[in-house]
Fold:
Amino acid sequence: MQRQAHGRQHIRRVVIVGGGTAGWMTAAALSTVLRKDICEIELVESDAIGIVGVGEATIPAIHDFNRKVGLDEKDFMRHTNATFKLGIEFVDWAKIGDAYMHPFSHHGFNINGVSFHHYWLDQKRRGGKTQLGEYCMPFVAGKTGRFALPVTDPHSVLSTYSYAFHFDASLYSKYLRQVAEQRGVMRTEGRIVDVTLDKESGFIDSVELENGGTIAGDLFIDCSGFRALLLGKALGIDYESWQQWLPCDRAVAVPSQNPDKLDPYTRATALKAGWQWRIPLQHRTGNGHVYCSEYVSDDEAQLLLLDNIEREALAEPRIIRFTAGRRHRMWEKNSNAIGLTGGFN
Structure:
């Protein structure tokens, strides 16, 4: 392994520790931009270690990534059971019975240099009854259960918004694995039990597997999630808790049968010590309750969730424990963090 040559750092082998969404997104991205005859990419993961796998809702920036790695949208949607997403509806946050849609668009247009909402507020002051959302294309489409792809004609109202997706995170990982392996990424199955550091520089030399194997590299990308095997345990980068500002520290998740009509938006409903998500996919609806365990027990949180899902649960609820915050540094020596290794909020 050659770290320094003629004053420049040469990276010939990249090792990605951990699979899941973060690991395989990293592998797909790097295999798109790095020539495999110059730089090898190897991903190490263990089937015995589960993934969080509940990241089912995205924002429009997902298009940038999918385009960068060359995904065909229709093929991607088929492989991940994806649905379209026009925004996020927030229910009961201001007060019980209140609902607000945050669309991937704007409301109305500026008139004579004045922002549209000023005209709406003036209309409301004069007794107008229309909601602000009625002047927003994705709001109207979403609330009527409709969707159309945006167009490029700037004179059409169908050019005024963007969209994202709901998809099965586990299926997305598998899909990206196929893409990455077709482009030369090597996958090694195994549980990492030790990390070897260079005695002089403190850089990571290799990771040791439970089966006795050793995987060396020049650059190591830590996608091991909350365990943070490289950046946290091996290199000692502490985790900064944000719990004093973001007290929620648990989530309980459960899939359910789909309702008769799939809404093209995510719903987030405020509860007494947290909030509940509802994310419709092609084959099921993802549900979860994020809460603060100081105020709600795990059993009570599960009951609240099950009482508020629309159809029959398809599995037993699963508890996920976390601490909102971030790693003090995302890059240390020859390792950096992607995904939950770097932070969660």
Remarks:
- Helices lie at 20-33, 62-68, 73-80, 116-125, 137-143, 169-182, 229-234, 298-307.
- The mean pLDDT is 93.
